[in-house]
Amino acid sequence: MTGVRVLLVDDDPLVLTALTMMLKGAEGISVVGRAANGAEALDALTTTPVDVVLMDIRMPTMDGLSATEALRARPAPPEVIVLTTFDADRHVHRALSAGAVGFLLKDTPPEHLVEAIRRAAAGDPVLSPSVLRGLIRRTVAPENGARSRRAEEARARLAPLAERERQVAREVGRGLSNADIARVLHLSVPTVKTHVSAALARLGLTNRVQLALLVRESELDLPDGD
Fold this sequence. Notes:
Elements: E1 4-9, H1 13-24, E2 29-35, H2 38-45, E3 52-55, H3 64-72, E4 79-84, H4 89-98, E5 102-105, H5 110-121, E6 126-127, H6 129-140, H7 144-158, H8 163-173, H9 178-185, H10 189-203, H11 208-218
Parallel strand pairs: 1-2, 1-3, 3-4, 4-5, 5-6
Helix pairs in contact: 2-3, 3-4, 7-11, 8-10, 8-11, 9-10
């Protein structure tokens, strides 16, 4: 990769300008387009090659969550980081379920945002700390009956995985990178990537964030709060 191509989507011109100026100085990152709503973003993606989309939620014409669902349904879509001031659980769950690889708040420090863009381009999940804590609470805090039912449903969904895919999926659920998984399971990084891709295809998922959520819900030997 010679550089990460980024599309900015926000209905606030000041936010677009600030993000453009901030990313302009980041090595290996290029802002290749800007859009004021989800519909404009989808139009831009038909003609402009993009690696990562920074997507706001509340916008006129088409909101960011609807746009994320639509663009992630396209062949070979770019990765999406939802960048917003709202971290309500319903927004987080819908965004990640739609295929967003990350969910960050607009108060994320610039250096962390730049690193998140690079990680997202590589397919790694990126979540604000408060969002991650909310996901963990959502996974471990439900009443016993509801939690048990969700765990059973998640385990049933994971049942088609081959044993090695299951092992790799468990480590994805713990939040490990491909390199870390390779060290833990004594595999090469390309082999880990192959198993992750196979697991996603077998389960009908679009990225490793969705896989991690499913694994956490299944409680596959994961320590609480890890």
